[in-house]
Amino acid sequence: MDVLDHADLAFPQSLPEFQRLFPDDAACAAYLEKARWDGGFICPHCQAGGEPFRFDNRAGVLRCRKCLKNTGLMVGTVMERSHTPLSVWFWAAYLVASQTPGMSAVQFQRQLGLSRYETAFGILHKLRAGMVRPDQDRIGGTAVGHVEVDEAYVGGKTRGEGRGVHHKTLVVAAVEVRRREPGSAQDKRNDGRYAGRVRLAVAADRSADALGGFVESAVMPGSLVVTDDWSGYASLRKRGYDHRAIAECGDREVAEQFLPVSHLVFSNLKSWLNGIHHGVSAKHLQAYLNEFTFRFNRRFYPFNAFRSLLGIAGDATAPTFAELYSGQWKHPRCSGYGR
Ligand SMILES: [Zn+2]
Predict the structure, then answer these.
(1) Global pTM?
(2) Which residues surround ligand 1, an ion (CB under 5 A)?
(3) 51-65, 157-171, 232-246: which has the minimum mean pLDDT?
(4) By Cβ atoms counted within 10 A, which residue in 6, 161, 265, 325 is the most buried?
(5) How many of the other CB atoms lie within 10 Å of CB of 308?
């Protein structure tokens, strides 16, 4: 497999494959160049085309042969202004994209072979910041089957306070429900239904303002939206949705039958939060919900996750190291709905 011969690469399925694709800084630079100029280098200063000058000891820099100005391949990506080698960034994004959510900065430092903890911390935080930036587009639409919307209390295990419902936070979910082709291997499970994209948000309460407001921000108008018959969802038709409320959702079996996919998402979310992060405080919950959403929505497309994390998918600008340490940078959309 050659990086430059494939416009749309399969994600490396193994560590050896990754190492073959990105053996050194030059290979990573070639990949960045290809991602930015599919048809060959165009100087952003003078718009001249043609093969630029390259430097053996500065893999991330191209120099225009006409105007002699430099162009940095890391500019506009999460790697901008970093002194860390490109190959370390690529390896770091691969680790984060290939499902190692629980990795601490110390483990990360060891994996990357870095001498300084601060470097590992900075890389990890910048990559994760790309994940906590919420996807902006709304899910659903008339082409998708329908969208389940449901809410649940999550989080809240606090050290020293024993078991119970301490500090649980209300989370509302919208989940696209898709259907496998009849006759495919997995069409028996859940009647062939499975989750498409999700949106998750902290909600202040179960009022129509909080729940209806969430649906408006997360789901395309006109979508078929299925909920239980809680009054907080009664305004959805007025808000422009084709709303079906399932009666008697207090009954567990009925709920399982009509909202099975959102129940599955909540159960995945809870085990992720509890198993990996040992509970998360309400203050940070929205950031974790955004990370879960990022991973969940790209679970079939890890290479998209890899590119998004590096900031070469054109949808992320991570905070700088200084912003992270100063406490100036805030997770977007952490305020929750209905507040
Ligand atoms: Zn130029």
Answers:
(1) 0.77
(2) 43, 45-46, 48, 64, 66-67
(3) 157-171
(4) 265
(5) 24
pLDDT at position 89 is: 93
- Length of the chain in terms of residues written: 339
Q: What is the 22 CA–ligand 1 centroid distance (Å)?
A: 28
- End-to-end Cα spacing for the chain: 51
For residues 234 and 247, give the distance between their C-alpha atoms in angstroms, rounded to a whole number: 12
Q: Is 99 left (phi over 0), alpha (psi -120 to 50) or beta?
A: left
Binning the chain into helix, strand and coil, the percentages to the nearest 5 are: 40, 15, 45
Among residues 87, 73, 84, the alpha carbon closest in space to that of 120 is found at: 84
Give per-residue pLDDT as tens, 272-329: 887 765 667 777 788 889 888 988 888 877 777 888 888 776 444 444 433 444 444 4
Give the span between the Cα atoms of 38 and 4, in whole angstroms. Answer: 10
CA of 287 to the centre of ligand 1 (A): 41
Distance in angstroms (rounded) separating the CA atoms of residues 237 and 243: 6
What is the tens place of the pLDDT at every residue in 119-160? 998 888 888 887 877 777 899 987 778 999 999 998 765 555
Model confidence band, residue 50 (pLDDT cutoffs 50, 70, 90): very high
Distance 68 CA to ligand 1 centre (A): 6
Rg over CA atoms, the chain:
23
Number of Cβ within a 10 Å radius of residue 6 = 11
Rounded to 5 degrees, what angle do the CA atoms 145, 146, 147 make?
Answer: 140
287 vs 131: CA distance, rounded Å:
9
Q: How far is the CA of 62 from the centre of ligand 1 (A)?
A: 10
Could you identify the residue written with the tokens 């399925």? 13
